[in-house]
Amino acid sequence: MIYSLITGGTSGLGYELAKKLIKMGKNVIIMGRDEKKLNSSTKELKIISQEVKVIGVKIDISNLSEVDKFFLDLKTDNIEIEHLYNNAGQGFFGSVEEVTEYEISSILNSNLVGLINMTSRAVTHMKSLEQKCKIINILSTAAQIGKKNETIYCAAKWGAKGFLESVRDEIHGGNIEVIIVYPGGMNTPFWNDIDSGYEFLTFMKAEDVAEEIVHAAINHKILISDLVINRRK
To answer: How many whole angstroms from its chain centre is CA 145?
Structure first.
């Protein structure tokens, strides 16, 4: 059975992506670390359609052994991942002088290490499939330009961009396409408990961004390799 897989799929943009895909008749797997939130989101998504399958997976994608086990379980259960949406991430906003070891580790693990783990194992998985597959990566405009008070976040996103462009070159000509998306600010739970100083209530709606991403990934007749999404001024 064929599925779309979304990391960080329990809330915000990941959850909106899942909703869009389910309404299109796609089977969906969402991943998250918070079991309570995962169970709640999975239950809500199942209500949208009785025709598709929705699976919730509790996992820490920065732990490679957990990722390896997940992909091994896919093989056992005869599940094929056609599209991977690398969406998981978290932010830190503050002076470079305030950064702690915990924050460095947390930001790099959630935004970079987890993406590397999922992508590397997804490439192996997808290469064995007959159909065209896609790895859609939700980065940020912070992967394109350095921003004050976002030093570690930008470092993680720039690292992810370099990794993905290298992967794209490495697998060129095969059955896997790599799409990199650079959204501007979205009004999502990402901003909860973050003192960024931004007027986030004026940011884009996650459902609108999700619609553009899904269109680029599925509905478009030509390959969109890189996509910048910003609100209208």
So the answer is: 20
